[in-house]
Amino acid sequence: MELTDVLYEKDNGIAKITINRPNIYNAFRAQTVKELISCFRDAWDDNRIGAVILTGAGEKAFCTGGDQKEKGDNGYGSSGGLGNGIGLEVEALHHVIRAIPKPVIAAVNGYAIGGGHVLHVVCDLTIAAENAIFGQSGPKVGSYDAGFGSAYLSRIVGEKKAREIWYLCEQYSAQEAKEMGLVNKIVPQGDLMAVAEEWAGKILEKSPTALKMLKYSFNADSANIEGISQLSMGSLAMFYRTEESAEGKNAFVEKRPVDFKKFRK
Ligand SMILES: CC(C)(COP(=O)(O)OP(=O)(O)OC[C@H]1O[C@@H](n2cnc3c(N)ncnc32)[C@H](O)[C@@H]1OP(=O)(O)O)[C@@H](O)C(=O)NCCC(=O)NCCSC(=O)c1cc(O)c2ccccc2c1O
């Protein structure tokens, strides 16, 4: 597949996938998600690869979720069935990150917000730069990920914290994220990729079969969330076609305060 939104490199057993839309803080559109899925599948299929690093281009952001400027009144463009009617194959992306039988390390180099936050949540490990910022924003912009974004997040940080993250849509520092178990390690920004590669190198020294079975085992315990995710995305497709969802997206794009009051009936 020709790559326009993503950079993909393979070196010394490590695949590095970089979301490359830095001007809009690495927000993803339909094409970005397709390319990410394609790269993960390639890394899965390549027996020389033992670990994958996912990161964002530039120094500002890892990923800020769905590209709000590409979002129309019925989702992200595609009218077909892929992406559960939303136009973004986010479910398939979450699935391939979990299903690839090789550890995936998120190297979070800045904002991990909204759907970008969910991406690092579903990765096996997260290494954060000191300037990284974490948070969910769906309820502010007329969206939600009530699959892995909520149910799996609450397994990581606990129910109370996960509810706080979604209900308040605050932003959290790398240190706060580490304290709640969302991040494995914090490093100076300039060391981020070197440390991610060092961790990937340590993984490469281990038995690939043992790692594969461990990943399957960790996944098995939360596999039911795929079903919850399907329900979430199916309902999101309907929500996107409402005035309430449009108000959230339009307020962000128009850089004005959002007004959801009239929808509280
Ligand atoms: C991340 C921010 C808090 C940073 O704020 P800051 O003030 O530092 O920077 P700017 O806001 O000026 O941003 C710089 C530049 O980037 C553009 N940009 C940033 N994020 C996005 C985005 N998501 N989409 C489009 N454009 C973006 C911004 O407009 C600026 O460009 P200019 O041309 O104006 O200079 C702040 O940027 C922020 O809050 N961003 C929005 C983050 C957000 O709300 N994301 C959630 C969207 S919903 C979502 O992610 C989502 C999740 C899912 O799981 C889905 C599943 C299935 C389908 C859809 C899903 C989905 O949409």
Automatic annotation (TrEMBL):
Q: Listed GO molecular functions?
A: 1,4-dihydroxy-2-naphthoyl-CoA synthase activity
Annotated site residues (Important for catalysis) in this chain: 76, 240
The UniProt entry, under Pfam families, shows: ECH_1
Superkingdom of the organism of origin: Bacteria
Identify the residues that bind substrate.
64-68, 76, 111-115, 143, 240, 255
Q: Which GO terms describe its biological process?
A: menaquinone biosynthetic process
Q: Is ATP-binding one of the keywords?
A: no
Q: Which GO terms describe its cellular component?
A: cytosol
Catalytic reaction annotation: 2-succinylbenzoyl-CoA + H(+) = 1,4-dihydroxy-2-naphthoyl-CoA + H2O
Question: What keywords tag this UniProt record?
Answer: Lyase, Menaquinone biosynthesis
Write the Enzyme Commission number(s) for this entry.
4.1.3.36
Task: Name the pathway it acts in.
Answer: Quinol/quinone metabolism; 1,4-dihydroxy-2-naphthoate biosynthesis; 1,4-dihydroxy-2-naphthoate from chorismate: step 6/7; Quinol/quinone metabolism; menaquinone biosynthesis
Tell me which CDD domains the record gives: crotonase-like
Which family does the record claim for this protein? Belongs to the enoyl-CoA hydratase/isomerase family. MenB subfamily.
Function text = Converts o-succinylbenzoyl-CoA (OSB-CoA) to 1,4-dihydroxy-2-naphthoyl-CoA (DHNA-CoA).
Recorded protein name is 1,4-dihydroxy-2-naphthoyl-CoA synthase
